[in-house]
């Protein structure tokens, strides 16, 4: 039997017309304010090269508190092992989710993207840590000199398990064709947990879509109707994407996962510096930072079944 969500999704999957384009205006849910997500660590940078990168649980919790204080509402988390290497160890992920829940009010999102070398089984197991939200990348993309592999069956399995557990996905989009894949996913497998579609446009990865205003606008007409979106510009795309997203009624993801340079010739001091800048610009745009509880309401985030509160 087709999922009850499919009637609505069937309409979404039609070729986007003028009404989908109109949806890009500040009429999107939550567009009176700005969801600021911090992505503090990632899987790519080495602690030896970036000594201020938060890699221990203590460093992560301290960063999370500082970022919440200056306007973040969600945290996108990659964890590291004792040698500061990326890991998807389930015990460590559970401990991290618990610590962030007890020390902050942030919406806790775990990465299922991991590092480019992580096997699918380990990436799926991330969901057993029962975060509020998890990333779900909508296709394979060249990633610098590497390949970030996301097969169709794997994507469907992530989506299915998140629905089962009540974890709200953030669909990560590295290239425009991945928005067509998102429409197919929703059409064939129904709305995600929470009943709302939220997308993050990850722009400026070498191998993916460029990080500029024209490409962001092109992405908007491919978004499912009623979806919200954040945008992330990697490296030198950070500021063009931030301004374009704010102007288009979108939300922001910032952090040291994506950005290590604050200005020409100036290294980022810490994640809170990037969040504070995003929050200041969001206020200037008359779209001040949304609180974590406002974000829960917009994205449909509830504590996943079985998760310790
Ligand atoms: N580290 C990248 C290979 C995600 O977190 O879901 C993938 C990534 C996306 O960062
Ligand atoms: Zn990530």
Automatic annotation (TrEMBL):
- Listed cofactors: Zn(2+)
Could you tell me which InterPro entries the record lists for this protein? Aldolase_TIM, BKACE
**Coiled coil: which residue ranges?**
none
Composition skew (Low complexity), residue ranges: 15-31
Write down what this protein is called.
Answer: Uncharacterized conserved protein, DUF849 family
Q: For the region Disordered, what residue ranges are annotated?
A: 1-33
In Pfam terms, one family for this protein is BKACE
Origin: domain of life = Bacteria
Classification via PANTHER family: 3-KETO-5-AMINOHEXANOATE CLEAVAGE ENZYME, 3-KETO-5-AMINOHEXANOATE CLEAVAGE ENZYME-RELATED
Keywords tagged on the record: Metal-binding, Transferase, Zinc
Indicate yes or no for the key word Nucleotide-binding. no
